[in-house]
Amino acid sequence: MSQSDRAHELLRAEIVEWALPPGTHLNEVQLAERLGVSRTPLRAALQRLAQENLVRITPGRGAFVSELSLSDVRHLFQMREALETYSARLCARAQDRGAFTSLLTDFLAWAGEPRSDDEYYALIARMDSAVRSTASNPYLGEALRGLQGQLARLRHLARRTPARLASTVDEHAAICQAIVDGDEDRAALAVSAHLENSLRNTVNVLVMSS
Amino acid sequence: MSQSDRAHELLRAEIVEWALPPGTHLNEVQLAERLGVSRTPLRAALQRLAQENLVRITPGRGAFVSELSLSDVRHLFQMREALETYSARLCARAQDRGAFTSLLTDFLAWAGEPRSDDEYYALIARMDSAVRSTASNPYLGEALRGLQGQLARLRHLARRTPARLASTVDEHAAICQAIVDGDEDRAALAVSAHLENSLRNTVNVLVMSS
DNA sequence: GTACAACACACTGTATACAACGCGGGAGTG
DNA sequence: CACTCCCGCGTTGTATACAGTGTGTTGTAC
User: Fold this and answer.
1) A53: part of which helix (H) or strand (E)?
2) Which of A39, A57, A94, B139 is most buried, by CB atoms within 10 Å?
3) Record: contact B82-A78, CB cut-off 8 A
4) Tens-of-pLDDT digits for all 210 residues of chain B?
């Protein structure tokens, strides 16, 4: 793994975990020294983070941790809706939908007997992975992966509302069921409904914390 | 404008215009010397081009002009469908749809009396711009803009099929009409239909030229 | 006291020099 | 004759030194 990759991962983790809050100015020499790399790979890492919309680079001014305003969140969820409803449609059309029957049973099992939050997030990650794999479109997969960073940053705020977690189980199960049934319209609608609820919850958390 | 921006624009133009065909290995020192910049801003430009999927960077091997295989094209058009159908929906829901009434009349005027190809491409560019502006979502806009590079590369092959041009006029007019009417479902369907035709034509051109 | 200008500092953008890795060619051995 | 190992070259990855620009502060003039 290159120095650039290391700097990228470290910075990404710090931004996602709010160790570097939005708006923070990222001084290149200080950061390079703290991360133990030179400025050259650090700048490459910053550019990659800018591509993921985790930092914003202003020419001549430097790099800043990107903001997470309310309108940013709304636009982010619109992007999710565009990509995830279409991905769900592709999955519903796919030949091999076995991964989703497996996920469906796991979600239903969870509804009956919840376990730790981390395991639930792992389950969701498994579903995202299954979607990317089944849709089998590198462009879509990369775009979806790019959104994960921003979403992870939001989740760090939403962690304190575990009540929301229970309701998402049903929504995810509904999505899996529609995909397993091969009903792409219902799958897209289920994704839209899930995202609408998720956005509402996220906005609530944001206005509470501000 | 920085050296990095200059190198990015020059390289992008050369790739789009097939001066650098897919698969070409981009030697850093030669390129830097030819473009009159140093390796540092050149590498930044290459990373930006990799983000636009115009070059593919293999760690330790260097940068190559990205391929345009048949499956790549199909995946690219799927991505277009995901983003453009959703953008069309947003436009159909928007308050100010005046830009599309103007575009609609221009497309209809064109159907009656065609003019030069370049002017038609300018018209399409105006429509893309109107979509981005009306959807008013930076994430969507940036993603759509990212696809333009690849599509421009494809258009350089498709230029030789002017017969296709005439039929796209009706398709674009149908999209504008649906947006003006505020019928988002019809708008999305019109976009899908247009993309399906466009993909079929592009694939034909690709298999003819190979 | 305030406003404008000039200077100094710090930071980003760029160039170049160095190091490490991978690849290819050639020679040697089985 | 073929296969393998090793050496040399070229290329990418990284570090550092330099230049240019923007900003902040301070001093002076009104």
Assistant:
1) none
2) B139
3) no
4) 899 999 999 999 999 999 999 999 999 999 999 999 999 999 999 999 999 999 999 988 899 999 999 999 999 999 999 999 999 999 999 999 999 999 999 999 988 887 877 888 889 999 999 999 999 999 999 999 999 999 999 888 777 676 777 788 999 999 999 999 999 999 999 999 999 999 998 898 888 876
Q: Which residues contact B8 (CB under 8 A, 6 or more apart)?
A: B44, B45, B48, B49
CA A159, CA A153: separation in Å to the nearest integer? 11
Whether the model clears a pTM of 0.85, i.e. scores above it, the answer is: yes
CATH 1.10.10.10 in chain A: give the residue spans.
3-65
Looking at CATH, the fold of the domain delimited by A70-209 is given as: Four Helix Bundle (Hemerythrin (Met), subunit A) (1.20.120)
20-49 of A, contacting B, C-beta below 8 A:
40, 43-44, 47-48
Q: Which residues pair with A58 in a beta bridge?
A: A62
What's the rounded Cα separation, in Å, for the pair A176 and B170? 38
Reduced to 3 states (helix: H, G, I; strand: E, B; else coil), residue A114 is coil
Look up residue B43 and give its amino acid.
R
Comparing every residue's Cα with the C1' atom of nucleotide D15, the nearest one is A38
Query: A174: which 2 tokens?
Result: 């509904």
A2 close to B (CB below 8 A): yes
User: Under CATH, to which class is A3-65 assigned?
Assistant: mainly alpha
Residue ranges matching CATH 1.20.120.530 in chain A: 70-209
Contact flag B75-A2 (C-beta cutoff 8 Å): no
Q: How far apart are the first and last CA of chain B?
A: 39
Query: Within 13 A of B107's CA, how many CA atoms are on the CB side?
Result: 24
Q: What does the alpha-carbon distance between residue A193 and residue A173 come to, in Å, rounded to a whole number? A: 12
